């Protein structure tokens, strides 16, 4: 059988909160008032909020200023200055004076425009502007452009908007230095080219959900157009058949328009400093039996990363889908069964997943991207009640060693590795893989999916009574766990949370589950009808959630309109809409102290992690007990097999195929020839091939193989296929190499998840 690999602080309301909005006005796309097309005067609070005690952090790092000055001097130096034999000639002094003038201007002008003028621009919004002609027209090619509050942005398609950022952030864009990391989104966030200090710096972030992984409740119009679509698998199948509408290329239109540069600018202007960017594995490739649009989203992913760089926003890159599905949810690519590390095709799908993690790691570890993407979430929401905890830990240990063998060990060598708690809660992960190198625990706390049927009201008044039980519940349920986990595990973040205290929203619990958008939920589907009590309650709930979670990413930045109502029908999940209507704070720092004000107390984290947890001494030297417990790969047993199945006969792939390397961006305008854009591969020693099907072997459906009949013999008969092998270790730290599958037991039984990890 041939391989199936393809060839290829808050804004005031302008009206009373209880006044319904004019429904004739389109809400697409909703825009925060602080980033309107027209400039408004705003005073920067930069001097009021400092990230150093003496408040002397420069607007642009000294090394950036030195680089700019050196570049200018080199391009303008006069060779006549070296001729010392004509010191007494008047002509020499005239030439020397002129050269000196040029040098002085070369030093003063960059400092003036980047530092002094920028500082003035940050405090006088309406008169501010970036480099250029003052009318938003782009400067000459090769000129560094930078600006702050009130500057006019001209996008690649010629669209102009005013960048309103009252928090002292600056953007940087230089066609001849496209990987310049000097920007920062606000005064309390270090520039991209400066260190992020976990325990000191705080993550205030949003997800860009629905952009590259299409969820029905975030992009309802696409699903409404194709009845019967319930996930991206069925949507892609139905869309591909609709050639009259453009087939699957309709998705490229979505990639190009759903999130724009102005969205990223708004995120920076909202006091946020991170985005979590969910991406699908088919950004790398798909196999022939999968209906997804292959590779097309990758250039748009790079465009988002470049926009993030421009505005100084860090990115948590999230591999949101896994071959075979890691949870059976619609946002995994295909709803239904779990076929990752579970069932007959569980190991084969894990091989593909590991290779995609490898390929993405190689790309983002390149020097051009390592400062923009400091965190890589390798598997989103693996369903451990099905997969098993021991099984996923074995995979995580293997992935950890593979990643660190690519990047090297310790701070500054590649991204942090984020793993989801698998819905077990933070306590289950205490002491996880002690000595590992920079692993983050990611939790997704939601009240909406707690299987409640009767939610207490949140519109209970304004002032101290706002929000009913919900603000205090957020503080009590989440705050203590987050503080404890940062001591017991290490860096802990909330990669997702929302204002969805109930499960109301169009398609929120899936297409066809009309309970979430039926009569009982109708009051929660239209934010334009909410009164002041509702807005105040949601605002207090939001502040409490942010304070309790400390380092967070709201799910999600934007929810698209329903095609039937031309409005957002899941408003509790849209940060952008919350900013527009007033239940999301325009300055996330106002959340600090909310839980204490509500009387919620508990354990506190002192802000200091163990050295190994942030890449310090000991990072990468995993304790022997963990290696003994979880170092065997493939793990045993694999769940989801028929009774009496022989695990050694589980189908696997062979690593004999070419690796689909991710390409660098095509930059426009083209930078100078000296600019290195990279080749997509950080570690040249990593020469292993990619997994593919073994010729002549028959495989079950990779996305629906749970409890499928097991093969009765190895294929090929000479032995099992070889799993993906990590590159040779580069340090003396403990490394785990996956062995060739061998018979380890005569039967497989399902085991429950463990309650603690070591």
UniProtKB/TrEMBL annotation:
Its EC number is 3.2.1.58. It is an enzyme of class 3 (hydrolase). Keywords: Cell wall biogenesis/degradation, Glycoprotein, Glycosidase, Hydrolase, Membrane, Transmembrane, Transmembrane helix. GO terms for cellular component: cell surface; extracellular region. It comes from the Eukaryota. Residues 730-758 have a biased composition (Low complexity). GO terms for molecular function: glucan exo-1,3-beta-glucosidase activity. The chain crosses the membrane at residues 91-115. GO terms for biological process: cell wall organization; glucan catabolic process. Belongs to the glycosyl hydrolase 5 (cellulase A) family. PANTHER family: GLUCAN 1,3-BETA-GLUCOSIDASE 2, GLUCAN ENDO-1,6-BETA-GLUCOSIDASE B. This is glucan 1,3-beta-glucosidase. It comes from Suillus discolor.
């Amino acid at each position: 059988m041939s391989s199936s690999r393809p060839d290829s602080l808050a804004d005031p309301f302008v009206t009373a909160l209880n006044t319904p909005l004019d429904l004739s006005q389109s809400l697409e796309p909703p825009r925060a008032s602080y980033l309107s097309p027209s400039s408004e005067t705003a005073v920067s609070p930069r001097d009021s909020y400092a990230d150093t005690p003496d408040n002397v952090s420069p607007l642009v790092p000294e090394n950036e200023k030195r680089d700019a000055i050196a570049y200018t001097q080199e391009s303008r130096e006069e060779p006549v200055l070296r001729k010392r034999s004509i010191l007494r000639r008047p002509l020499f002094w005239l030439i020397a004076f002129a050269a000196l003038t040029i040098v002085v201007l070369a030093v003063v002008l960059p400092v003036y425009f980047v530092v002094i003028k920028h500082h003035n621009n940050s405090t006088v919004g309406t008169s501010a502007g970036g480099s250029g002609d003052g009318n938003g027209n782009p400067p000459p090619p090769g000129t560094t452009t930078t600006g702050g509050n009130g500057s006019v942005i001209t996008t690649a398609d010629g669209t102009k908007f005013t960048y309103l950022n009252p928090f002292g952030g600056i953007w940087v864009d230089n066609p001849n230095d496209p990987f310049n990391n000097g920007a920062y989104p606000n005064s309390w966030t270090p520039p991209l080219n400066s260190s992020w200090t976990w325990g000191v710096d705080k993550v205030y972030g949003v997800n860009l959900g629905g952009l590259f992984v299409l969820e029905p409740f975030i992009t309802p119009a696409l699903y409404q157009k194709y009845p019967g679509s319930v996930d991206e698998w069925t949507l892609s199948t139905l869309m591909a058949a609709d050639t009259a509408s453009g087939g699957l290329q309709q998705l490229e239109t979505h990639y190009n328009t759903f999130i724009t540069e102005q969205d990223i600018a708004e995120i920076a202007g909202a006091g946020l400093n991170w985005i979590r960017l969910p991406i699908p594995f088919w950004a790398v490739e798909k196999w022939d039996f999968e209906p997804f649009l292959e590779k097309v989203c990758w250039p748009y992913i790079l465009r988002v990363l470049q926009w993030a760089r421009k505005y100084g926003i860090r990115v948590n890159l999230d591999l949101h889908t896994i071959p075979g599905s890691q949870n059976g949810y619609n946002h995994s690519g295909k709803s239904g069964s779990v076929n990752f590390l579970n069932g007959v095709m569980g190991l084969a799908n894990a091989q593909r997943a590991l290779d995609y993690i490898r390929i993405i790691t190689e790309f983002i570890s390149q020097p051009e991207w390592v400062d923009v993407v400091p965190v890589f979430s390798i598997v989103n929401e693996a369903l451990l009640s099905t997969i098993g905890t021991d099984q996923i830990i074995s995979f995580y240990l293997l992935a950890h060693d593979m990643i660190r063998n690519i990047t090297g060990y310790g701070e500054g060598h590649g991204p942090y590795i984020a793993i989801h708690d698998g819905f077990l809660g933070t306590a289950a992960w205490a002491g996880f893989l002690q000595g590992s190198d920079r692993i983050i625990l990611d939790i997704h706390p939601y009240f909406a999916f707690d299987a409640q049927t009767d939610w207490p009201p949140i519109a209970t008044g304004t002032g101290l009574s706002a929000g009913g039980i919900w603000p205090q519940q957020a503080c009590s349920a989440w705050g203590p766990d987050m503080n404890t986990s940062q001591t017991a595990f290490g860096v802990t973040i909330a990669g997702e949370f929302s204002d969805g205290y109930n499960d109301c929203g169009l398609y929120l619990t899936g297409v066809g589950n009309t309970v979430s958008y039926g009569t009982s939920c109708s009051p929660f589907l239209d934010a334009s009808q909410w009164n002041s009590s509702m807005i105040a309650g949601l605002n207090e709930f939001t502040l409490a959630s942010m304070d309790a979670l400390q380092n967070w990413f709201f799910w999600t930045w934007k929810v698209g309109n329903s095609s039937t109502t031309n409005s957002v029908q899941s408003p509790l999940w849209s940060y952008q809409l919350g900013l527009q209507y007033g239940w999301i704070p325009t300055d996330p720092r106002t959340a600090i102290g909310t839980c204490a004000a509500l009387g919620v107390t508990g354990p506190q984290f002192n802000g200091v992690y163990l050295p190994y947890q942030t890449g310090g001494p000991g990072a990468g030297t995993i304790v022997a007990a963990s290696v003994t417990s979880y170092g065997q790969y493939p793990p045993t047993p694999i769940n989801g097999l028929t009774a009496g199945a022989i695990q050694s006969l589980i189908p696997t792939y062979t690593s004999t195929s070419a690796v689909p390397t991710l390409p660098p961006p095509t930059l426009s305008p083209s930078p100078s020839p000296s600019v290195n854009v990279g080749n997509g591969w950080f570690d040249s020693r990593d020469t292993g091939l990619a997994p593919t099907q073994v010729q002549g072997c028959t495989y079950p459906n990779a996305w629906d193989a749970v409890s499928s009949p097991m093969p009765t013999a190895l294929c090929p008969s000479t032995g099992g296929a070889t799993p993906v092998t990590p590159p040779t270790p580069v340090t003396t730290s403990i490394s785990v190499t996956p062995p060739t599958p061998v018979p380890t037991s005569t039967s497989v039984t399902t085991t429950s998840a463990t309650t603690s990890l070591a």
